[in-house]
Prior knowledge:
The structure is a single chain. Helices cover 21% and strands 18% of the residues. It is of the alpha+beta class. The protein has a domain at 18-153: endopeptidase fold (from Nostoc punctiforme) (Alpha-Beta Complex), CATH 3.90.1720.10. A 6-stranded antiparallel beta barrel has the order 2-3-4-5-6-7. It is elongated and about 175 Å long. The chain starts with a helix and ends in a 9-residue tail after the last helix. 17% of the residues are buried.
Amino acid sequence: MHKGIIAACIAGALFFSAASASALQCVPYARDISGISLSGNAWTWWSAAAGRYDRGQSPIAGSVLVFKQHGSMRYGHVAVVRTQVNSREIRIDHANWGSSRIGGRGSVTTDVSVIDVSPRNDWTQVKVWNNIAKDFGTKVYPVYGFIYAEASVRPQMTPVVHIRQTFPAPVAAKPAQPSAPQPVSQHEEPAAVPAKGKHKADVRKTEHKAPETKTETEIVAAAVPVSAESPVNDDDTLAKRFGSGRYRSSY
């Protein structure tokens, strides 16, 4: 009887201790709140999420912010994003943050302000609000980025649209229109068009007549000009001109 009670008390104590430890560590707490099923040290979550969960540099409610190893934070740290205030500030819920002196060790703190101080606003360097000092302080923490649990809380990516370029069907070429006759210039005359049926030269028959024969007297008369003072038939005159005795009369 007593042994059973003792065993039950030990089992209950162990269960209570495990539940408390689970709630007071950043890794199990972030896993329970976000639903991201990862284990191991906090800083290893970034590489462990590759191929299983989407990762990015934009804060989304429900995503997990993964801190790198830095200084005394040998195991890194994980925190769940509660809401986004602006492009440089978010609010987180996390466990086991800070030393026991300020009440952070082993406890859960919610609605904690975190600001991005990275030069490119890519959430690679942050400061965490110190509720005891009421200040962000000077310490800067390097972080990897955000792990997204569900598709509903992942950042809306612009889908890649492949535009298929279409071309209109080829249009049949129109038949060439006959060109209008060019007006005749005022300085040019139109080419002569041969008359119908006149393309061949007319062939006419010509009659060849025999040349007329003249007498010797007519030839001489044509060669010697005729005058009233020297008649053609005067033998003496002809003899003087031509030196022929034929035309000299007898004495």
